[in-house]
Amino acid sequence: MSHSDDLLWGAVAGISRFAALLTMAELGLADHLAHGPLDAGELARRCGAHAPSLRRVLRELAAMDVVRPAGRDGYDLTAKGVALRSDVPDSVRSAIRMLGEEGFWYAMGNLPATVRHGSSAFVERYGHLYDHFAANPAVSGVFDDYMRRRAVPFTEGLVERYAFPATATMVDVAGGKGHILARVLRANPDMRGILFDLEHVAGRAAETLAAEGLSDRAEVVPGDFFVSVPAGGDVYLLASVLHNWDDADAVRILRNVRRAMKPDGRVLVLEVVLPDDQAPHLGKDLDMRMLAIFNGGVERSRDEYAAVLRQADLALRAVVELGSGASLIEAGPR
């Protein structure tokens, strides 16, 4: 079998393996096995599963080395399987659950229809992603946990590899619950921050900043970035924002930032930047999700970000690699 055949058949087998991982994540198998091996029947009882069906899934998971047989009918976690626990810092449980959520599963399965018609089958059935979350709080909670965990390596890269102005005020545009802003402020004790997001998000961000002891250095401002953003900031951060929007909307957001920023201010865009070659890359995988889930959402190359910034009267100055596939694009007034 050729290498290309291996890749193709590996992708075919991958759907079954992902389904087994999704079952493990949804049933919380790793949490149940956290303190040692369990008999498959007892494990089924604890997670409310049909024991004969669970044994078949456990056999597949053992072949993937996330669990291993222990005794006649027992299973234990492997070192790899520990990452499926919900209580470890690098847990992937919420990421797997999010990708297996009904709407996401539908979106990826209907990517051919999206490509045929040029509009997202997901949006046609479920509406905008964030409306879907608003209508399904449990799904929104899984997504929030996924995004928080996904942001950890990017955020650590941001504070380690980028030199912020010592006394700057940073406006975190669409900053969500405030985890990135909190980390930046902790690493830069003379900086101040403004978290800007929709009103229903702003309250949760205020709770995060208060819990971090940062209420005296950070304020939360509700609003819509298509209308305006807070004025007078030295630094404007847009983390995983622009890839949700097509070029026209991305330019609208950036123009509002350009109008609000100080003459010597800077814009920081934290995204996955696509390479110009044909090699496999995280951004290319993410771009399939953006295509499936959003009308207009897209991952971009350096040149494509430069073009969007230029239309907003901004100039790309530098790209800093943050690790884990993410990059920080620094821009300033043209």
UniProtKB/TrEMBL annotation:
GO molecular function, one term: methyltransferase activity
UniProt domain O-methyltransferase dimerisation: residue ranges: 13-81
A biological-process GO annotation: methylation
Keyword Oxidoreductase set for record: no
Keywords from the named record: Methyltransferase, S-adenosyl-L-methionine, Transferase
InterPro entries: COMT-like, COMT_C, COMT_dimerisation, SAM-dependent_MTases_sf, WH-like_DNA-bd_sf, WH_DNA-bd_sf
Stated name of the protein: Methyltransferase
Gene source species: Nonomuraea indica
